[in-house]
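BUG: 3D viewer hangs when loading the predicted structure for this chain

Environment: internal workstation, default settings.
Expected: structure renders.
Actual: progress bar stalls at 90%.

Input used:
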Amino acid sequence: MSRVTISRPFSRTGVDYFGPVFVRPLPRRPAVKAYVAISICLCTKAVHMELVTDLSTERFLQALRRFVGRRGRCSDIFSDNGTNFIGARNKLSEFLKVLKSRDHRDAVSRECAKEGIHWHFNPPSAPHFGGIWEAEVRSAKHHLLRVVGETPLLPEDFSTLLVQVEACLNSGPLTPQSDDPNDLEPLTPAHFLIGSSLQAIPEPNVDQLLTSRLNHWQSIQRHLQTFWKRWRQEYLCQLQGRTKRWKPAVPIEVGKLVVVKDENLPPMKWKMGRICQLHPSADNVVRVVTLKTATGNLTRPVEKICLLPVPDDEEA
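Structure tokens produced before the viewer hung:
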């Protein structure tokens, strides 16, 4: 019900942690472990991320207060039970102890009760109950941890990087806004947060430059650009997922909104197009289409386009 009930963004939220990441409190100081708290709106798939400097209950509640202060108070929060972290015992052993401690749960319950928030724990050994936020956590964690690795960043730098990564995740197209052939803007999680799509400040591409030639800010942007390329490729592959044999393939039809694959786009930029003409082969299979884009018509093979999912009532 939480997934399909209309509600304000982040009214029903899934919360999870990932890490560790490494931050340097001050220049020329030893790096220390930190973690990332990620919140996913169960209705709109919008993402919010917070840097947490340790795994104490106090830091967890501070991250919760920052989240509520910027995204509004939740009615329901869903999270994993501690036994779901068995596979990450080596890296998150401290987090397991915190989750399982009665003091932690009592403190969280008291704080949420003051705000009128209902906290729900998934059943033990059932991480699939949190499929929507587990998928977002896996996507963000998988690429962000590989991009940053064990490179220590200043807390302000890491917070800036997290916000930019959050913006990338919130820019992903969800579905067409309308059937108007002239409407090339898809619906994204950002539309539910700010009423329009997110726009990034233009930055030069530094992904191909040597690390030794980058200044401090360029090194942060390189992490972002590398994350964007990895996550965007994974996101587009999800849109092109294969269908089961018993389920018919999504038809390629004139008027459908698609994402055009372009490896050279900067972060948060998506090349959108509407199919305006089909080019079937001799066997009557469509392998090439002509697209209407903001800059003119393009002819592309179907392997280079990704159809956006549409609501079930439109499919019917």
